[in-house]
Design goal:
It contains six helices and no strands. It has 217 residues and is mainly α. The protein has a single domain, classed as Helix Hairpins, CATH 1.10.287. The two termini are 20 Å apart.
Length: 217
């Protein structure tokens, strides 16, 4: 056990020496407990998680750009159809209110036929853009799998770090922690609860917070 002077009388040099001793003791303890490998694995998982986040961000951005481009291509066609229909409707209403010579009626009929003939082309083009928007949603399957893997990695890192805290904690804190975790396992066997009333049935984050509080962190 390392004896230290009262906190009020510690000099900067003594504080540095104390930190060095604690770091050395922690290093030796981790080696003796075999936890250094666990920490190495956790450290290796962090860059992998960062790369996965970058991948999710890139896929999401790519999908968003494809959706916006498809909308920009489809919107003018829809506007053209709407404006053409409104114009023809107004002209037909005007002609029906006061029928004019046959030449004017012939022109109106011809323009109506052209409009109707163009509708299928605009509709097919719009359907193609809608299909493009639908296809962009396939990124959700890939990013969903990636996020699920990241959650598993994060949970593993958390478990490894908690193991370090538990194994390096004082006996009393370790005993309380093990009892708390044992109660958590019993709660897990009961299944998820929407409104838990049993003290043992707590959430994962609550367990972590309680553990850190017991360890004085």
């Amino acid at each position: 056990m390392i004896d230290h002077p009262p906190a009020a009388s510690i000099t900067p040099q003594e504080l540095i020496q104390r930190i060095v001793q604690m770091a050395r003791l922690l290093h030796v303890s981790l080696q003796e407990l075999g936890l250094n490998k666990a920490i190495e694995q956790a450290a290796q998982a962090i860059p992998d998680a960062r790369e996965r986040l970058d991948y999710v961000a890139a896929m999401t951005e790519q999908a968003a750009e494809r959706v916006l481009n498809a909308l920009e291509r489809a919107q003018p066609r829809q506007t053209m159809l709407i404006e053409g229909a409104r114009d023809l409707e107004a002209r037909w209403q005007s002609w029906l209110a006061a029928p004019q010579q046959s030449d004017e009626a012939r022109r109106l009929v011809e323009e109506t036929r052209r409009y109707i003939g163009a509708v299928p082309d605009h509709t097919r083009a719009t359907q193609s853009e809608l299909q493009e928007i639908l296809m962009t949603q396939d990124f959700q399957d890939l990013t969903g799998q990636t996020l699920k893997k990241m959650i598993e990695v994060t949970r593993e890192i958390e478990q490894q770090l908690l193991k370090v805290l538990i194994d390096s904690a004082p006996a009393t804190a370790e005993q309380r922690t093990l009892q708390r975790l044992a109660g958590s396992e019993r709660a897990d066997r009961k299944g998820p609860q929407i409104k838990p009333t049993d003290g043992e049935a707590v959430t994962d984050q609550a367990q972590v917070d309680a553990l850190l509080a017991q360890l004085g962190l």
